[in-house]
Each structure stands twice: as structure tokens, then as C-alpha cells.
Amino acid sequence: MQTIILLALVGLGAQLVDGALGMAYGVTSTSLLLAVGLAPAAASASVHLAEVGTTLASGLSHWRFGNVDWRAALKIGIPGAVGAFAGATFLSGLATDIAKPYTSAILLALGIYVLVRFTIKGLPGRRSDKPLTLKFLAPLGLVGGFLDASGGGGWGPVGTPALLSSGRLEPRKVIGTIDASEFLVAIAASIGFFIGLSGAGVDLTWVIALLAGGVIAAPLAAWIVRLIPARILGSAVGGLIVLTNVRTILTSLEVSDEVLGLSLAAIAFIWAVAVAWSISEHRKAVAAGLAEKDAATKADEAREAALVTD
After folding, report:
1. Which of 143, 137, 114 is nearest to 25 (CA)?
2. How does residue 82 score in pLDDT terms, banded at 50, 70 and 90?
3. How many domains is the chain partitioned into structurally?
4. Model confidence, pTM
5. Highest mean pLDDT among 65-74, 146-155, 193-202
6. DSSP state letters, the chain
7. Is the per-residue pLDDT at 306 higher than 90?
8. Integer Cα distance of 253 and 155 in angstroms
9. How high is the pLDDT of residue 270?
10. How many CA atoms lie less than 13 Å away from 270 in the CB half-sphere?
11. Which residues have C-beta within 8 Å of that of residue 219, sequence separation ≥ 6?
């Protein structure tokens, strides 16, 4: 029963992060499932089965808030589904001793990316009026879908930064569009794993626990993002993913306890510094914004006073 509750909390926390950042549900959940010993294909299959429900709930929640560009969601989601089916088939065919370091390496790379990106940049807000084309979205969807299924995560870390950097959608619509399109990816990956694994190694109780936590969290994500700034949340989650997957990789390599402990301590220190830096930079940005707003208010008051004098 304790395991079920913990899995539900993992699903809840991962969905809160995913709904707020547009990434990291699969990466976070799969990392933790690998850490407790589940085989890579079974872990990814369990997460994607749960994501069928969580992405539907998340997509509907974002739609209600007007955060989804449905044209872009279909343009990236359909190729993403093709890539996810291929990735699930690929991972299902790998032996466990090969698949585990492969999956952990992908998750580690994605975790480093999330940690570095949000620590240094946060969520950009640059905008452009150019439309998102199929030529841009289709290859992005194929790569993101393949990595998502074969690595246990990757749809958000690949798709969200690419759409943000294009500047063609405002951040809230990028996150909503990526979350809504992930529903197609989750269905295709689940079908691929069902064919490849025939249900072997997938515990439906675990799936339901992850799903329950995620569904509860989906409508809360828009609320939580107002409490925890995206920059700080991204640094915190990225560090957790890095720490978890380094542990998995070093354990599979059978390193000594001393090496494992020192490595994890070093990563924990870097993680703490990154979060502290993000908090500091966020405070500076808030202070700068308040100063700019105050200066604009004073300028308006001066103009009004000048008009009254004239």
C-alpha cells in the first residue's frame, strides 16, 4: 500500500511540474521507476499508459484556460505519435542489460538540459507573428516522440524549448499545446509497447496509481505555477532527474559505495547551487520589473502634472 501511495505522489508531483513547465512528467516518473528496479521497457510502458489519462486531463485543463493552439498540436502530435510508436518498438526489442543504461543516459542528458536551461535562462517570452509550419513541426515531433518512448521521456524537453525559442507562441500556449499533443504520443507509445511486450512487466496497479496522481494534479498545474516560478521549478526538477539517473547508471556499473557516495554528494552540491542561483536571479528580475513599473508610473504622473500646470 505504501508503494501505491508513493507512486500516486510521484504521478501528482510529475504532472504538476509538467503542467507548469510543459515538460518532465515522463522523465521524472521513469527515472524514479528505474531507480526502484523496474525494467526500462516496462517503466516507459507504465508511464505512457498513465500518460494517456494525464495528458487528456492536462490538455482539457489547458484548453479551458485558452492555452492550446490546436493546429500546432496536430501538426506536431501526429508525427510525434509515429515517432513514439517506433521508439516503443525499438526499446521493447532491447535486452534489459542494454536498455537500462541506454534509457538512463537519455534521461540524464535530458535532466542536464532542463537543469542548465532553466538555471541560466528560465522561460523566454520573445514573440513572432510567423506561423508554425509543418516543415518545422513534423521533424520535431518525430524526434521528440521517438526519444519520449525509447528513453522514457523527452516530448516536453524536446518540444517545449523548440517552440519557445521560435517565438511564435506565447509561453502559456507553448506549454498547453505540448501537453495537449502529448495525448497522441502517449496512445501511440502504449500501442507500441503493448505489441512489443504483450503486457509483460507492466503492473496495472502502478499505472493506476501514477494516473490517479496525475489526473488530480492536472487542473492544479495552472495554480502551482503562480506559486513557484518556472525558473526555480525547472532547476529543482532538473537536479532531481540528474541525481536519480547518475545513481542508476553508477549502480549498474557496480562502482564502489565510496565512489557512488562522493559522486552523488558532488551532484547534490551543484544542484543546490543551481537552485540558489535561480532564486537569486528570479528575485533580481522581480526587483527590476518593479523598478521599471515604478519608473513608468512616476513618468505618467509627471506628464499629468505638466498638463495640469499648462
Report:
1. 114
2. very high
3. 1
4. 0.65
5. 65-74
6. -HHHHHHHHHHHHHHHHHHHHS--HHHHHHHHHHHTT--HHHHHHHHHHHHHHHHHHHHHHHHHTT---HHHHHHHHHHHHHHHHHHHHHHHTS-HHHHHHHHHHHHHHHHHHHHHHHHHT--------SPPPHHHHHHHHHHHHHHHHHHS--HHHHHHHHHHHHTSS-HHHHHHHHHHHHHHHHHHHHHHHHHHHTTTT--HHHHHHHHHHHHHHGGGHHHHTTTS-HHHHHHHHHHHHHHHHHHHHHHHTT--HHHHHHHHHHHHHHHHHHHHHHHHHHHHHHHHHHHHHHHHHHHHHHHHHHHHH-
7. no
8. 28
9. 92
10. 14
11. 57, 61
- Give the Cα separation of 217 and 111 in Å (integer): 22
Domain limits at 41? 2-309
C-alpha cell at 29: 516518473
The pLDDT mean for the chain works out to 76
The tens digit of pLDDT for each residue in 106-144 reads: 778 777 877 887 788 765 555 555 677 888 899 989 988
Q: Which residue type, as a one-letter code, is found at position 182?
A: E
Q: What Å distances lie between residue 54 and 19, 60, 82, 105, 166, CA to CA?
A: 10, 10, 20, 25, 27
pLDDT at 266: 92
Grid cell, residue 87, equals 521508439
Higher-pLDDT residue of 31, 263 = 263
